[in-house]
Amino acid sequence: MSSAFAELPPACVGCSNSEARATSNEMLLKEIPVSVWTDKKDYKQGDMIMVNGQVANVASGFPVTITVVSPLNSVVAIDQINVANDGSFETTLNTAGAMWKYDGTYTVKANYGSADKKSSVKVKLTGGISHTPTYETPTTSKQCGANELTANGYCVPFSITGGAVTSATLNTDDNSIVININAKKDGTLTVTPSKTVQDGIFMVLVDGQEWDDVEIVANKVTVMFPAGTEQIEIIGTFVIPEFGTIAAMILAVAIISIIAVSARSRLSIIPRY
Question: Mind giving me the DSSP string for 186-252?
Fold first, then answer.
């Protein structure tokens, strides 16, 4: 977050420049609902990112929600942090592991209590995978109907009011369905994936923020979104892996081969007279 300084406050007349800047920054932070910043802007994969922030008006019992979005627009980390009495909060993000494997710009978002109390900071990560992965469409894909999303070749029933769906993909890293929409006004999106595509749905993100205005009944998800929403991500415990159909065919062939070999082996040990 770039530094911003207010005019020299009357209480600090005669202070040194460093004292004046500290006082000005403190006054500025008190006027911003929530602020977040990191110790650096550039990191290498495996580094620790120190995240600090400040809440202007502390509400008892409310934590700050930290969400990190990758260059591929997928959520790589979610955490809730308690706020100190003075409004400060801090946490550490570990960039080691598969969730942080792609190079690029990651967005660290902080939300406190309501949708309008939010802030974000961007960091750059290097030392991982530089290319963007592509998904192949399964060979068994079919033409989806007018009321179905096409996500990596799979059809997912949906309905929407207040906007239109522009695209959808399956994110196998996060076990999620990522749906891009054009929301001209407040509306509702209902998605009903089959359990062979996604299962164990437990969370929904709207533009990268954890969303509460959601109804989840088995595999039917209804999301109430505000005007201007661009992306809705439905997260579960399972999403069909890439090349799932091909993998199933290979497994079937392997099982048939094992049965055939076993049958020949049994025949070879039968005594002949």
Answer: EEEEEE---TTTEE---EEEETTEE--SEEEETTEEEEEE-TT--EEEEE-SEEPPTTHHHHHHHHH
Closest CA to 67 of 123, 128, 2, 120: 120
Phi and psi at residue 219, to the nearest 5°: -100, 15
Q: Which of 66-75, 125-134, 235-244, 255-264 has the lowest mean pLDDT?
A: 255-264
Q: What is the pTM of this model?
A: 0.45
3-state helix, strand, coil in the chain (%, to 5): 15, 45, 40
How does DSSP assign 142-192, residue by residue?
----TTEEEETTEEEEEEEEEEEEEEEEEETTTTEEEEEEEEEEEEEEEE-
Do residues 128 and 45 make contact, with C-beta atoms less than 8 angstroms apart? yes
Question: The tokens of 22 are what?
Answer: 């500290």
Torsion of CA 215, 175, 118, 227, to 10 degrees: -50
Residues 6+ apart with CB under 8 A from 160: 181, 187, 188, 189, 190
Radius of gyration of the chain (CA): 25
Residue 160 scores a pLDDT above 60: yes
Which residue from 221, 232, 240, 102 is spatially nearest to 175, judged by alpha carbons? 240
**Quick one: 109 exposed, middle or buried, by C-beta within 10 A (0-12, 13-18, 19+)?**
buried
Token pair, residue 7, equals 């005019």
